[in-house]
Amino acid sequence: MACKSCSSGSCGSASETGEVKGCQSNGGCGTGGCNKMNVFDWLSDLDVPSFQRFHIVEVKFKGGRKEYFRNVDQLELHTGDSVMVDSSSGTQLGVVSLQGELVRLQLLKKNIKDDDKVKTIFRVATDKDIEKHELSMARDLPTMYRGRQIIHDLKINMKLSDVEFQSDGSKAIFYYSSEDRVDFRELIKLLATEFKIRVEMKQISLRQEAGRLGGIGVCGRELCCSTWLTDFKNVTTSAARYQNLSLNPVKLSGQCGRLKCCLNYELETYMDALKSIPTIEGRLKTKRGEAVLQKTDIFKRMMWFGIVGEEAIWIPVSCDRVAEIVDLNKKGIIPESFEDLNPDAPTVEKPTLSELNSDLERMDKKYGGVKSGNRNNRNNRGNRDGGNRGPRSEGQDRGPRPDRGPRPPRPEGENRGPRPEGQDRGPRPERGPRPDRGPRPPRPEGENRGPRPEGENRPPRPPRPEGQERGPRPEGQNRPEGSIPASDGGTATPKPFKKKKKFKPRPPRDGAAPTPEA
Questions:
Q1: Phi, psi for residue 54 in degrees, rounded to 5
Q2: Which are the contacts of 256, defined by CB distance < 8 A and separation ≥ 6?
Q3: Closest Cα partner for 12 from 79, 62, 77, 58?
Q4: Residue 265 — very low, low, confident or very high, per pLDDT cuts 50/70/90?
Q5: Cβ(38)–Cβ(9) below 8 Å
Q6: Burial status of residue 457 (CB atoms within 10 A of its CB: 0-12, 13-18, 19 or more)
Q7: Against a cut of 0.85, is the pTM above it?
């Protein structure tokens, strides 16, 4: 069940019986609106006689608005009690938020004097007053929506953000924001006629509007202006520059559209830390080149520089070393680098890469300068022969290779195994001419030739002499499937496999009798 007094912010305060005031869900308001401008009375456990208590009480109204009233009748009040107070527009219901000595400190902080301008508390609110106050609060949202429609019809450049009715329902305050001056005389007449109430227009800033509406900031917490911040100080972009923040208006702006108030929270700490950071007016001069400031870490007291032409490489330098280089440049002295500030120091030559690898080169010359791939192949051959030959001494020739003789035949079914890595097969010897086999003997009658071996093509058929007919095919001899008769001067090629067609009788040839259909 939601809280009935979220607008008054009275959740979290308990009475003498332990019951939480103003919250029907026992202090667990789900919306978080009850935390607006909450305060903790850390002097509430102090047992002070009633006649010695401070007679002014802090009372909170809708939207976190707080005012101070005098307890003339010495009423027994507790934090969270509803009271009827005297306001400039009539009687209004509020909730006690603070009392005692802390109120005296708040008056000193806000520079409010204890004089006749402080109004009084009439009485503790009754059930009838609370019920009437809830009915008046229920009219806030419908009135605000209807007021926005009227403003839109009149084409007035203003934004209506909130409406607050008095407890008796006779008057309403319309809170609006606008960048320009607004003539709302016609608007007040229409609103008074529409709602039959007295209308008061009150202009607020964008920060006050965000504080009344509330919300969650980018930090994940509720907005400062809606929870504890009451006075809004001026925030400038110089606060972001001093803290080395990116001047991105999207990241520096809050929900109100203005610069975030939290930019001022740590500004004094940064200003104190910047006093020990040296000021860089131009480029630092070193014999390596001119250095440009890229970044400054204020609290670590480190500065990053980039040499002109090598800006991608940042060199971290402490602030004390930077101050020494600045002093040397003012005197006309150019240091060697950021690390060595003495220009008269002898230069130490760094060894070249060839000098560092000279030991490896000497070892390569000693052992013949054999490449790693050939050395591995030689070791593999030595392992096949039954052992390693060891390093060859300088000036020793390999000599002719002895004749090994013919290789014995490999047993049938035995594989040769994988070829050693780095060993080439070598060129294949040329094949000599094929011997002449002579004419093929005739095939016996009735014997089939069998399937042709794979990859073997039929030799081309000799051309038929001109004027010679093919003649009839002998009985019982059919054309093989998939073959095509060779034309004159052509070659017979196998025909791709096709689906067998339905048998059709061949027409009679040379006056033969027609074949009967099957």
A1: -70, 135
A2: 206, 207, 209, 210, 225
A3: 79
A4: very high
A5: yes
A6: exposed
A7: no
